[in-house]
Amino acid sequence: MIRDYAETLLGGRHCSMIIRRGVSLKLTDLSGGSNVGMLMYNLENPTERLNIPDSLKCQHTFKITQGNCLYSDMGRIFCSVVADDAGWHDATSGTCNEALLQNKPWSKDSYQQALNDFVRNGYDSFAIELGKYGLDTRDLVANMNWFSRVNADDSGHLVLAEPYAPGTSVSLRFEMDTIVLMHTCPHPFNDSPTYPKTEVGIHLCVAPEVAADDQCRTSCAENGRGFTNTELYYLGR
């Protein structure tokens, strides 16, 4: 039985997987400057999906970091952020699409021209992975952007902050059986003169049981209620 698994996801790629409750997903920005877009859906009922607005509102935060949880639209917790070197991950800027990429200074070669080096965008990447589970673009919702921080400039516009150093990691403990979609396409605010070629490490392992004084569970009253809602969902299984 596999209890530990690791792989590397290059920049501009996408993947998806089913992550069971009680499993930890560690993401590591191996190169620095990576962005990992992520969506989540309940494996049993994919109409229950990640709700970024509620996740931010109920925890009174604009960023996601250690101690925070990511909620579903049913008030349950998909995952908890149990460790984080970065301290700030973007939950408000969405993902890049083909129209946005047309305004970037990156190669516009097609797959027929550039093969695996052609420029990908986050919207299409999510769409491809959704199709593997009988879902489509109507099921797209606001996504997480791991390893990306946004700041407000003097005019109040959000801008992408300096990239994190190579080796920065974040660990997510899953509280539900979850369909997880990921892509490593650039953050929509990335104005690099060349298409970012990055590497992200993915590591899966069995997580320790949630303690009564777990930081994510006790960081605010709403998280305590979220854990209770999630545990009731699995009661008797």
Keyphrases for this structure?
237 residues; alpha+beta; six-stranded antiparallel β-sheet; 6 helices; 14 strands; globular
Calculate the mean pLDDT score and round it: 93
Strand order of the largest sheet: 1-14-3-12-7-6
Main beta sheet = 6 strands, antiparallel
Number of domains: 1
Oligomeric organization of the protein chains: single chain
Question: Based on helices, strands and strand pairing, what is the structural class?
Answer: alpha+beta
Strand tally is: 14
Low-confidence stretches: none
Number of alpha- plus pi-helical segments: 6
Rg over C-alpha atoms, rounded to the nearest angstrom: 17 Å
Shape: globular
Strand residue content: 25-35%
Percent helix, as a range, is 10-25%
Distance between the termini: 21 Å
Order of helices and strands: EEEEHEEEEHHHEEEEEEHH
Description:
A six-stranded antiparallel sheet has the order 1-14-3-12-7-6. Strands 2-13-4-9 form a four-stranded antiparallel sheet, with helices on one face. It is built from six helices and 14 strands. The protein has one domain. It has 237 residues and is of the alpha+beta class. A hairpin with a 5-residue loop joins strand 6 (69-71) and strand 7 (77-84). The mean pLDDT is 93. It is globular and about 55 Å long. The protein has helices at residues 52-58, 98-101, 111-114, 122-131, 215-218, 221-233, and strands spanning 4-10, 14-19, 23-29, 36-42, 63-64, 69-71, 77-84, 89-90, 144-146, 150-152, 158-160, 168-174, 178-183, 199-206.
